[in-house]
Specification:
Number of helices: 7
Number of strands: 9
Strand content: 15-25%
Largest sheet: 4 strands, mixed
Structural class: alpha/beta
Order of helices and strands: HHEEEEHEEEHEHHHE
Distance between the termini: 38 Å
Oligomer: single chain
Mean pLDDT: 86
Length: about 200
């Protein structure tokens, strides 16, 4: 059984408040069908929930969503026993409007390292789908600390228009916060950017 993510719903709502046209899917509303319908037209996609990494078969790694019957995976976009979106399905998506995907879930940048191919991960699947910039985690992340990091991140993104520069600024803000719980690199260094450096500007 996967743990509850009480901070994921709060994180999603706080991020959604930053964008006038944001669509926020929480708990039972975060079904696969609804997520995909909105993703096809979204400039920024932020997923906060659980990811299941399959190191032996990377194409089967998946993001957990709610079932069509209304059962979520916990609080936020994900938890146990719900619907899912596999890396193989993600690779086949066409997302011409999407400039940035943020995967606020554990291990979304990890996977098997194939010679000549690099690491086959959930973040790689979004890049293969044509998304220019993907933010993903290299290891497990703390639910509460990630809220703080993303507050810093989206503030910097709206100020700079550069998703990679915004990540650097958010990590510096955490480091220099003076709060031991935030400044520890283990709390913010897991998040990494993959792809090009510009493309998701402030709205």
């Amino acid at each position: 059984t996967l743990p509850m993510l009480p901070g994921a719903a709060t994180e999603a709502m706080r991020i959604g408040q930053r964008f006038l046209d944001a669509e926020v899917l929480i708990g039972p509303a975060a079904t696969k069908a609804r997520f995909l319908a909105l993703a096809r037209h979204a400039e920024i996609i932020h997923f906060g929930g659980h990811a299941i990494v399959n190191p032996s078969y990377p194409s089967l790694s998946k993001l957990l969503l709610a079932t069509a019957g209304g059962q979520g995976q916990g609080q936020g976009a994900g938890g146990g026993g719900g619907g899912s979106l596999s890396a193989q399905e993600i690779e086949q998506l066409r997302l011409p409007a999407t400039k940035l995907v943020v995967l606020a879930a554990c291990g979304t940048a990890s996977g098997m390292d194939f010679r000549g191919e690099g690491v086959l991960s959930l973040s790689r699947a979004w890049l293969d789908a044509g998304v220019p910039v993907v933010l993903a985690s290299l290891w497990n992340v703390d639910d509460a600390t990630s809220q703080v990091l993303f507050d810093y991140y989206y503030r910097a993104l709206q100020a700079t228009g550069d998703p990679v520069a915004a990540l650097r600024q958010a990590q510096l803000d955490m480091l220099q916060s003076g709060d031991p719980a935030q400044s520890n690199p283990s709390e913010w260094a897991a998040l990494a950017a993959f792809g090009a450096s510009r493309g998701a500007g402030a709205r």
